[in-house]
Amino acid sequence: MALSTWSLAGIDPFMWHVVMPFPIGFLASRLLYGRIKKAGRQAESFSPTVASILTTPLLAVAYYILVGVHYAGPAMLAIGLVLSVPITVPLTPLLVIYLRGGFRRKRIFGIILAIISVVVVILQFAALFILGLAFADR
Fold first, then answer.
1. Are 111 and 47 in contact (CB under 8 A)?
2. Is pLDDT larger for residue 19 or for residue 70?
3. pLDDT single digits (tens) 50-107
4. What is the dihedral of CA 62, 7, 32, 57, to 10 degrees?
5. Which is it for the CA torsion 133, 120, 87, 28, positive or negative?
6. pTM, full prediction
């Protein structure tokens, strides 16, 4: 298929609403944290990439909740907050600690934080998939 025949309208809605918040959130937060580092607001050991990896799932959760509230109404806010607890509870404090200067003594701590972030999101998606299968059988 030639590149000229691709259109944005032909992209599956699944891609737009489930997958795309992650790369878009990563790029947006990477630009923000890159500017913060260039402005000298963070220490030299601050890594915009690690901060972006920790922020991306939180931005995606916020997007999912906003879309859910838009389509399903205010009741979806409570459901979205409950379903996002396994992501928001561990990652929010880790992000705050990292932005305030923690975990920056050695480079390996940033790598560990990034891995924790990715594992938490994968576990959340796996749990939601299994939960969806359990309810689909009924």
1. no
2. 70
3. 889 889 989 988 998 888 888 888 888 888 888 888 888 888 888 888 888 877 677 7
4. 30
5. negative
6. 0.73
Neighbours of 120 (CB within 10 A): 19
The pair of structure tokens assigned to 40 is 């000298």
CB neighbours of residue 48 within 10 Å:
19
Is residue 49 within 8 Å of residue 42, measured between CB atoms? no
DSSP code at position 46: -
Q: Give the residue from 58, 46, 55, 56 showing the smallest Cα distance to 110.
A: 46
Q: By CB neighbour count within 10 A (0-12 exposed, 13-18 middle, 19+ buried), where does 50 fall?
A: buried
The tokens for 132 are 């969806």
Q: What angle do CA 100, 102, 104 make, to 5 degrees?
A: 115
**8 A C-beta contact, residue 68 and residue 80:** yes
Q: What would you report as the CA-atom Rg of the chain, rounded to the nearest whole angstrom?
A: 17
> For residue 125, which of 91, 84, 65 has the smallest C-alpha distance?
84
